[in-house]
Amino acid sequence: MFPGPNRGGDDVMTGSQSALLIDVRGLHVHQGAREILTNVDLTIGTSEIVSLIGPNGAGKTTVIRAILGLVEPSAGVITRRPGLKIGYMPQRLTIDPTLPLPVSRFLALSGCAGGGRRRAVLAEVGAAHVWDTALSEISGGEFQRVLLARALLREPDLLILDEPAQAIDVNGQAALYEMIGTIRDRRACAVLMVSHDLHHVMAATDRVVCINTHLCCAGTPDTVSRDPSYLELFGEHVASSFALYQHHHDHHHDIDGSVIEENAAAEHQHG
Q1: Of 39, 108, 221, 250, which one is least surrounded by beta carbons within 10 A?
Q2: Contact 77, 17 (CB under 8 A)
Q3: Do the beta carbons of residue 106 and residue 150 sit within 8 Å?
Q4: Average pLDDT, the chain
Q5: pTM score, whole prediction
Q6: Would you say residue 18 has pLDDT above 70?
Q7: Which domains does the chain have, with CATH numbers?
């Protein structure tokens, strides 16, 4: 369980807030004299995918850690819906390669479900074949899927993913983001996702929040991609290439990044 993240407010949402899972207002985080975050606002509604983007050192992971109650805000209020269940996929999780820990045992350490349920969730993320394999022997992409399965075992209302596509090649990234969208649709859970993969994440999200220690801009991907603050941070060439990617990516990839036919892709997504 994560400690309650509220600082200076009570854990109650009423009226127009009832559709919100998370409401962050005026978040400040300082480390000594250094300002990590200044006056950041963020909301996450039911069943929406929100992507948190920004350059290195922008404070994206700090926002997540504050929401989880792992970082003490210097000022501001973080409110979450009462009884909210959060599944968290961290940016990094280091496992000793000499430890003979199979995937099945690793998932069992979560204590969230029985063996049948753990197998089902591993299959849901496309990694059923690594059930008996040692963590040290699976690929980077497979390990990310195992971490995603671990987060899903909590049956979350909100899935928080910090750089979920790291250590995965570009084609595998496309497949992973497609799967995250499918999980949202199937489970009706919200997703808060931090990523540097602008092309993929901007094409796979409902709303974008761009920060650079402060809130730069927020809105739909199309709106944010034209915002002067976004263009200043990432450049106009990024915005134009995002538009091309969004409209011309007309095929799908499997877990290993290989292209699969459209009929097979449909079965892969719905099977």
Answers
A1: 250
A2: no
A3: yes
A4: 83
A5: 0.81
A6: no
A7: 46-58+84-252 (3.40.50.300)
Q: Could you tell me the pLDDT band of residue 157, with boundaries at 50, 70 and 90?
A: very high
Residues with Cβ within 8 Å of residue 52, at least 6 apart in sequence: 42, 60, 63, 64, 192, 193, 194, 195, 209, 211
Annotate 50-89 with DSSP letters as a single string. EEEE-STTSSHHHHHHHHTTSS--SEEEEEE-TT--EEEE
Sequence-distant (≥ 6) Cβ neighbours of residue 144 within 8 angstroms:
89, 164, 165, 166, 167, 168, 176
pLDDT at 269 over 60: no
What is the per-residue pLDDT across 235-251, written as a single tens digit (0 to 9) for each? Answer: 876 666 555 444 344 44
Given a contact cutoff of 8 angstroms between Cβ atoms, the answer to whether 236 and 212 are in contact is no
Q: Which residues of 69-99 are buried (b: 16+ CB within 10 A; e: fewer)?
A: bebebbebbbbbbeebebbbbbeeeeeeeee
* Burial status of residue 58 (CB atoms within 10 A of its CB: 0-12, 13-18, 19 or more): buried
Residue with structure tokens 């761009």? 210
DSSP 1: -
The token pair at 61 is 């992971």
CB 172 within 8 A of CB 256: yes
Q: How far is CA 266 from CA 166, 168, 204, 246, 252, in A?
A: 25, 22, 17, 19, 9
